[in-house]
Fold this sequence. Notes:
Blueprint: H1 2-26, H2 38-51, H3 53-58, H4 61-70, H5 72-85, H6 94-118, H7 122-125, H8 131-139, H9 150-183, H10 187-217, H11 228-242, H12 244-247, H13 251-283
Helix pairs in contact: 1-2, 1-4, 1-13, 4-6, 5-6, 6-9, 9-10, 10-11, 10-13
Amino acid sequence: MAYLGGSAIQTIVDNPITAYRQLIQQYAKNSKGETISPREAVKEANRVFFKSPIQLSLSGLKPRLVGVLFKRIPKFGILLTYDFISGGNGQPGMAAATTASILSAPFINPIRMIEKQQRTSLRINCKEKQITEIIRESAAKNYKPLFRGTVPLMGHSLASAGLGLVGQPKLQKYIQTQLGEKASLGRTASNLISSACVTPIYVFVTNPLSRLEVIMQTNSIKDKNISLMNALKELSTDMRKFGFSGVFRGQGIGIVKGIISLTLFHEGRLFLTDTFKSVNSLEF
Length: 284
């Protein structure tokens, strides 16, 4: 419950940044299908964002909140169950993170697909696509489109679990232990510092995977799906044309998002964990 609560807090607060970052990555091509420079993509994202900032900031929030249950229960459940079965102490390691990332992908991918599809029409008419319409279009193809981008998602999920759920808490504990007494660092400050240390590595690893997801999940459901190989070719073309800045579109805003998201998640999780422990000790 503490993991889910922390995830819900993170989801609500970071949604505007998540939506804006997707636009930067999604608008790597113009309306003619030509790859444009990262600077032009940012200008296009800004144009769409400032035309309807509130709607864009809230876009995809409903499926993301629903996804806290449908995505996080399998992922956190597998993560903590594996840790428990393997004799862990509530602090999952990389083996638990790897298992959770692979087994939870089929539950997570449809939610991420719907979330991204909601924003595909913002460029044209500044209105998000309705969830019912996305489901109807997917149903016409036996719901197969909902599983586009599952392979890069597994890699993204593994990096997220390994660095965010396993690495950050260990680093946070180390920082609080080593520097807490000398610099009077509390849990919140050490949490923020450890998130700031982990996030650039996480974003560097996941940004290309995130780009692949966006390429594979934002084309029209009615059109033929973009295969992983074709998505990689598109990413390769972007790199040949614009170098690393083409591959790592949205890197800067991704780091800002990551620090905020990771800090909020762990602060919420730890606060709720302490609250539940306190309530349990009073009752028993």
